[in-house]
Input
Amino acid sequence: MSNQNPLQEMLALGQAPWIDNITRDMLQDGTLERRIEQGVVGLTSNPTIFQKAIAGSKLYDDEVRQLVREDKSVEEVYDALVLDDIRAAAKTLRPVYDSSNGENGYVSIEVPPNLAHDREKTTQEACRLFFYLRMPNIMIKIPGTEEGIPAFQGAIEEGINVNVTLLFSLENYRAVAEAYIAGLKKRADAGQPIDKIASVASFFVSRVDSAVDKRLDAAIAATNDEGKKKELEGLKGKAAIANAKIAYEAFQQIFSGPEWERLAGLGAKPQRCLWASTSTKNPNYRDVIYVEELIGRDTVDTMPPATIDAFLDHGQARPTLEQDFEGAHAVIESLERNGISIKEVTDELQVDGVKSFTDSFNELVEAIRTKREEMLAQV
Output
C-alpha cells in the first residue's frame, strides 16, 4: 500500500496538482506552505478569484490606505495589491520551481481580460507584468481568443512564460499549440535560448458538461421516442471528459515528430495541457470525477481548495487520461448525430468565459475605486 496521499500519487503519475486560488490570508497564515506539503506544486489565479479576495475582505485596507496617502491611481492600487500577492506566492513556490528544474512551482497572473480582443495591448501588458515581477516562476495568463493567440506567440518570442487560458475547443487548442511551437522556432532561429520557457494550455472542463447537459435535457424533453431518450440520457456527463481526452490525444501528436524533436534537443519543454474548471458543478456526479478521469503524463490539474480536499479524502489516482480515445471520439460523434455541435458549445463558452472574467475584473476595479474614494475622504 502506498504511503503517498492521492495528490502525491497524481504527481508520480506525471500530472502536476496546482491550486486554483489565492488570498492574502493563505499567503500569510501558512496555508500555501501546508498545501505544498500535501503535494500542490503550482498556483493559478484569475480576475474572479482576486475580485472575491480583495473586494470581499478587509485584509487589503491598510495597504490601500497607504497607497491612497501616496496619491496612487486606481490602476496603481490594483497593480500593487495583485502583484504583491503574486510575488509572495511565487516566492513561496520558488523552492518547488528550483527542485523540479523549472517544471513546476509556477504562479499565474492574468492580463486584464478587457484586453482579450486587443493583440498589441495584450502583448504589451504580458511583457510589462513578466518583466516587472522578474521571477522565473511567473506565468502570464493570456486568453486563447482569436487576437490572444498571436499575442501569446509574441510573448513566447520574448521569452515569457505563458498560461493560455479559456480554451474549450479542439480547434482552438491546436492553434494555441502550433503558436507555441512557432514562437519557440522563431526564437531558436534567432539564436535565443528556449530552454527556460514554460507554457500550459488551460482547457476548461466541467463547464462543457454543464452546457451540453442543458442541450441534452432539452432534446430529451422534445422527443417521445423512448430509445432516443435513453441514448440522450446516456450521453449526459460524458462530453467534458471526452473533449479533454481528444485534446490530449492531439497534444501527443503535436509534441512529437522531427520538428518538435529539434526544438526539444535545444531544451524546449512541451506545452502541457492544464485541466481547469475541474470542480463538479452537477451534484449528481462524483465530486472528483473531472480529476480522476483525466490523470496522465505531461499535464496539470488546477483545483479549487474544496476539490483538493475531496480528492485527498476519497480520490483515486490512476492513469486514466490515455484510456479509450476511441470512446471519447464516439461520444462527440454521437452528440453531433443528435444535433449538438460541440464546436458551437465551446465557442459560446469561450465568449461567456471572457465576459465573466471581464465582469469580475471591472467589479474589482470598481471596488478599489470605491475604497479609494472612501479613504480619500478620510485623509
In short: The first strand starts at residue 15 and ends at 20. The mean pLDDT is 94. The chain has 17 helices and eight strands. The CA atoms of residues 153 and 179 lie 5 Å apart.
